[in-house]
Amino acid sequence: MPATNTPSPSVADLQERYTDLERRIHALWPAHFRDACSRCTRICCRPHMFEDILSSDWLCDIGEKAYGPWWQTRTQANTLCPALDEDGCILAVGKHPFCRYFSCDMLLDASPDGPTLIADLFLSGILIQVCRIKKGASLLQIPRHDFARYARDIDAALTRGETEIRLCEAFSRTADPNDRERLALRMVALRPAAITPSATAQLAKRGFFSAEINR
Question: What CA–CA distance (Å, rounded) separates 113 from 60?
Fold first, then answer.
């Protein structure tokens, strides 16, 4: 029999998977970064990030579907970021519908050991990697009318992200140092680019050297 083409996943299903992935990251964020996120001052290092979110059809759809009335109220605020007030960021740790994921020096400094630092870097980069759906195409820049055209690429990127979050969830479930090191090294093998030069220096400070990463 001739091979049949597998139909592309629907945009609705892809956005549901993205939202689920985002929520799974939210669930792990407090355990990884403890109170580090809540120490941001009103001089936010990324105050323009919300403007970037509003310029993305994909993220606007996610916000509307996942956060409903809360999202609508916040998007009407006349501010760089509606989660910032005179006392700083009002978002609780692990609740980041606006704040995108990245690893600042404060987050890296909060990591107590090498494997945890790797897991922190890995977790914070999952959505960034998902949005890089293919060379020359960012999910955040695709207009809404082209979502279906990129459905297979988005599906593949989400599949990679779902593999990565499962590793992070397994890391969070175990307290065994050997298991945590093994899982951290699997993360490095899956996404070597997560270990930047500054991360390598941070790992060396914790006695977790390149020989362990490269073995």
Answer: 37
